Amino acid sequence: MFLRRMKRRKLPYEAFKPDFFLTDNQSLSEFGFNATVLHIPGHTKGSIGILTDDGDLFAGDTFTNRKKPDGAMYIENEIELKNSVERLKKLNIKTIYPGHGKPFESRSFI
């Protein structure tokens, strides 16, 4: 519902040209970061996570931890979010750093 309201608003923004594009499973080692990009849609179509070689997942708004670990507060596509979480369950993730709230151990949620 929230995302639908945002889409109806016509907020002004400045167009920009990205310096580069990230792709699913892209290594970030060329940027000096031992991590991989994960496409994890559901919250939004372009949601990504960054998974470090140490098992830390920077998950953006795919997860939240305000009172307890939970999934996205606003969901654009429930099926894609479910598939993204299923994908994450198969990976060696130790700690999740959500877009909102404190980090939490992955086993407490996924």
- Name the CATH homologous superfamily: Ribonuclease Z/Hydroxyacylglutathione hydrolase-like
The major beta sheet can be summarized as: 6 strands, mixed
From the N-terminal CA to the C-terminal CA, the straight-line distance is 25 Å
Structural domain tally: 1
**Arithmetic mean pLDDT:** 89
The percentage of residues in β strands lies in: 25-35%
Give the SSE string.
Answer: HEEEEHEE
State the CATH topology.
Metallo-beta-lactamase, Chain A
Helix content: 10-25%
The total of helices stands at: 2
In the CATH hierarchy, what is the class?
A: Alpha Beta
**What gross morphology would you assign?**
globular
Keywords:
single chain; 110 residues; Metallo-beta-lactamase, Chain A; 6 strands; 17% helix; 29% strand; globular; disordered N terminus
Describe this structure in words.
With 110 residues, the protein is of the alpha+beta class. The protein has one domain (2-108): Metallo-beta-lactamase, Chain A (4-Layer Sandwich), CATH 3.60.15.10. 17% of the residues lie in helices and 29% in strands. The protein is built from 2 helices and 6 strands, in the order αββββαββ. It has helices spanning 2-8, 78-89, and strands at 35-39, 48-52, 56-65, 69-71, 95-101, 104-105. Strands 1, 2, 3, 4, 5 and 6 form a 6-stranded mixed β-sheet that branches. The longest helix has 12 residues, at 78-89. It is globular. The model is unreliable at 1-5 (pLDDT under 50).
Care to give the gist of this entry?
This protein has 110 residues and is α+β, with helices and mostly antiparallel strands.
